[in-house]
Design a protein that fits this description.
The chain is built from four helices and no strands. The chain is mainly alpha-helical and about 100 residues long. The protein has one domain. The radius of gyration is 14 Å and the shape is globular. The two termini are about 20 Å apart.
């Protein structure tokens, strides 16, 4: 599976996270984040940022965007809190 090949993105073609076997693991993780987000009316991005912000070693998150419209997909992360079960679900997906 090479979902980014059509875009001609050289960076993604050379980056391990966009190559197998990590690509499949990462796409599965996105689906886990999407399922959790759907249960709360949140985007996968908000779930990912909320997960990062709850970690004790993280004091802030720098989120890159390509357009101002993308702010809407992540702005709610600051106030969103994951349950213990959701944190475990994400941890399991990361360990796969």
């Amino acid at each position: 599976m090479q979902p980014f090949a059509a875009h001609g993105c050289r960076f993604r073609k050379r980056t391990p996270n966009f190559q197998e076997p990590l690509l499949t693991r990462n796409l599965n993780l996105v689906e886990v984040l999407r399922e959790i987000g759907n249960a709360h009316g949140r985007t996968p991005g908000e779930v990912a940022i909320a997960w990062a912000l709850r970690r004790p070693e993280v004091t802030g998150a720098i989120v890159g965007m390509r357009s101002p419209q993308q702010v809407d997909g992540v702005i709610g992360a600051a106030e969103f809190r994951l349950s213990g079960g959701e944190i475990e679900t994400i941890a399991t997906a990361l360990a796969a």
